[in-house]
Design the sequence.
C-alpha cells in the first residue's frame, strides 16, 4: 500500500515552525515526513534555510511515531561523509528506528560554498558511492579507516549508534544514477513521477521508492498560481539548471522567465478540487512509487492540512 507523506520545506519555514508542521502532519494522519537539507533557499523570497540536523532533533522530541527522512543530503562536499554518518546515527537513535537517510549528488547552490571545485555529475556520483560505503562502515561500529579516490578516513569510531542502521535511500534523475542507486541503496528517491524508477528496478534495486508531489492549495486556483509563482518558480526551470546555478540571486534572475502560464501548465497542483489531487497522486502510484510526499508551497500550511485531512487522506489508498 502506498504511504502518503508531508514535506517539511526547510527553504520556506522557520525551524520551530517546521517542528510544529511535523506534529500537525502526524495528527492529521500523514504516514511519514521528508525534510529538505539546504544551505541556501532557491530564491530569497522563500526566506529560510535552517541546519537540518538541528531541526531533526526538535522533530524527534515533538512527534510520537512519525517516520522522518532527510530528502536529500549531499554527503560529498559541504559535509564530509564521516559527519553525515554521525549526524544520521544520532537522528536514527533519537527517532528510535523511524529515521531514513536520503542522499544524492547535490546542487551547486548548496555545495560550492566551501570553495571546492564543483565536479561534473559522473565524478559526483563516484564520490557518492564512496560516501555511502564510508557511512555504512561507520555504522558497523568499531574503529574504521578508509582510503579511497575521493575520501580518507583515519581511525574514526561512532559511539552513539541506533539499534539498527537506518535505510539509505539514494536520489536519482537519470539512468546512470538510477543504476548506481540500485547497487548501493536501500531504496530510491526522485521528484515527480519519472519513469527512471523502472531503470532502478531493472538494475536490481529494491526497497521503498519515494517521490514528491508539489501542490499549492488555496480555495481559489488563481490565488494558488500567484502564490506558487511568488514562492516556488524554480520548479519550472528546465534541464540541469537547478543543479548548476550557484546563488539564490542567479535563481531569481533565471526565474524571471517563469510565467503564470508556466505554473498553471507545470507540475504544481493548484486546482482545489480534491479529485485533482487524488488523480495526481495516482500518477505516482502508477509510476511505481510506494511513498509519495506532498509539498505545500507557501505560507498557508493550516488550510492545506485541513483540506487533506477532510478531503484527500480519507479517499487515498
Sequence:
Amino acid at each position: 500500500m502506498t504511504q502518503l507523506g508531508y514535506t517539511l520545506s526547510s527553504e520556506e519555514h522557520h525551524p520551530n515552525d517546521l517542528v510544529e508542521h511535523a506534529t500537525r502532519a502526524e495528527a492529521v494522519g500523514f504516514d511519514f515526513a521528508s525534510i529538505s537539507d539546504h544551505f541556501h533557499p532557491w530564491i530569497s523570497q522563500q526566506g529560510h534555510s535552517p541546519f537540518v540536523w538541528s531541526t531533526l532533533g526538535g522533530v524527534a522530541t515533538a512527534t510520537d511515531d512519525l517516520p522522518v527522512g532527510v530528502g536529500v543530503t549531499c554527503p560529498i562536499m559541504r559535509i564530509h561523509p564521516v559527519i553525515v554518518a554521525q549526524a544520521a546515527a544520532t537522528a536514527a537513535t533519537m527517532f528510535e528506528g523511524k529515521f531514513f537517510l536520503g542522499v544524492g549528488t547535490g546542487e551547486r547552490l548548496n555545495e560550492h560554498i566551501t570553495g571546492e571545485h564543483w565536479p561534473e555529475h559522473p565524478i559526483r556520483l563516484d564520490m557518492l558511492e564512496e560516501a555511502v560505503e564510508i557511512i555504512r562502515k561507520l555504522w558497523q561500529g568499531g574503529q574504521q579507516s578508509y582510503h579511497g579516490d575521493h575520501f580518507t578516513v583515519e581511525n574514526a569510531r561512532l559511539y552513539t549508534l541506533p539499534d539498527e542502521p537506518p535505510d539509505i535511500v539514494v536520489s536519482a534523475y537519470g539512468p546512470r544514477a538510477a543504476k548506481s542507486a540500485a547497487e548501493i541503496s536501500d531504496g530510491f528517491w526522485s521528484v515527480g513521477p519519472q519513469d527512471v524508477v523502472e531503470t532502478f528496478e531493472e538494475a536490481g534495486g529494491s526497497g521503498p521508492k519515494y517521490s514528491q508531489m508539489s501542490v499549492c492549495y488555496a480555495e481559489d486556483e488563481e490565488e494558488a498560481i500567484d502564490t506558487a509563482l511568488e514562492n516556488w518558480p524554480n520548479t519550472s526551470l528546465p534541464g540541469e539548471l537547478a543543479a548548476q546555478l550557484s546563488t539564490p540571486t542567479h535563481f531569481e534572475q533565471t526565474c524571471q522567465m517563469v510565467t503564470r502560464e508556466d505554473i498553471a501548465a507545470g507540475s504544481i497542483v493548484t486546482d482545489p478540487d480534491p479529485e485533482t489531487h487524488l488523480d495526481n497522486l495516482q500518477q505516482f502510484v502508477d509510476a511505481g512509487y510506494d511513498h509519495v510526499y506532498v509539498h505545500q508551497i507557501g505560507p498557508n500550511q493550516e488550510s492545506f492540512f485541513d483540506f487533506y485531512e477532510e478531503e484527500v487522506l480519507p479517499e487515498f489508498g
